[in-house]
């Protein structure tokens, strides 16, 4: 493949910086699945319907704003478009099996709460959505805006209220499932404390 030209530097590169040698990298375009980058698996409830998400991130501190990419062919996308509030539930790795059930079935066809082995719903306090009783950390969110892309929408929510598990949210103990792409998962297993 041709080298991708990079003429966007505001400043010239520092002296001695050369292009990557031929053969060091294999260069691809559009390979969104590559890299084994671990991303926390969480359960988003769009109104009453749970789906698994791994493409999510904080985007602002005050107010606390959080973004999640939702695929347009998901049932939850329709619910969000129609104005549903949502909750984002961070759940320990021991419930991964249920999270994979939520990541496989379509909400319009089944009630995923009935398929879950362990996860149970509760009503959120400030938004019209369900949340997960077993979660360690929960964000209650109102839709702030939606950014449209070809196959996903970026759902941007304002976190109205946050819940965390009293006495359980310990940095040495939390074990969240991490999605590494395709069928690969891991969990955070070692905590470093930098001074
Ligand atoms: C580990 C994992 C991560 C996922 N991440 C996302 C995501 O970030 N955004 C998304 O739209 N779908 C994601 N999915 C796919 C949805 O969870 C899946 O399509 C689900 O069946 C949609 O449910 P719904 O049709 O009820 O909305 C993920 C699935 C898995 C298993």
Provide a descriptive summary of the structure in words.
- With 195 residues, the protein is mostly beta strands.
- It has a domain at 44-165: Pnp Oxidase, Chain A.
- The chain is 9% helix and 34% strand.
- The chain contains three helices and twelve strands, in the order βββββαβααββββββ.
- It has a seven-stranded antiparallel sheet. Strands 1-11-12 form a three-stranded antiparallel sheet, with no helix packed on it.
- A hairpin with a 5-residue loop joins β11 and β12 (185-187).
- The model has no long low-confidence stretch (mean pLDDT 94).
- Bound molecules: flavin mononucleotide.
- The site of flavin mononucleotide has 20 residues, from β3, β5 and α1.
């Amino acid at each position: 493949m041709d080298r991708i030209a990079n003429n966007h530097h505001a400043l010239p590169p520092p002296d001695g910086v050369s292009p990557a040698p031929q053969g060091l990298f294999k260069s691809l375009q559009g390979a969104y699945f590559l890299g084994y980058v671990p991303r926390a698996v969480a359960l988003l409830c769009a109104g009453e319907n749970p789906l698994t998400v791994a493409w999510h991130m904080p985007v602002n501190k005050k107010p606390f704003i959080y973004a999640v990419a939702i695929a347009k062919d998901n049932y939850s996308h329709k619910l969000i478009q129609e104005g549903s509030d949502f909750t984002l539930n961070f759940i320990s790795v021991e419930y991964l099996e249920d999270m994979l059930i939520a990541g496989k079935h379509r909400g319009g066809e089944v009630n995923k709460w009935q398929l879950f082995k362990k996860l149970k719903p509760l009503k959120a306090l400030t938004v019209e959505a369900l949340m997960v009783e077993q979660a360690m950390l929960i964000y209650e969110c109102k839709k702030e805006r939606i950014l449209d892309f070809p196959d996903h929408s970026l759902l941007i929510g304002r976190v109205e209220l946050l819940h965390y598990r009293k006495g359980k949210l310990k940095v040495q103990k939390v074990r969240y499932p991490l999605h590494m792409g395709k069928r690969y998962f891991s969990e955070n297993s070692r905590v470093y404390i930098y001074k």
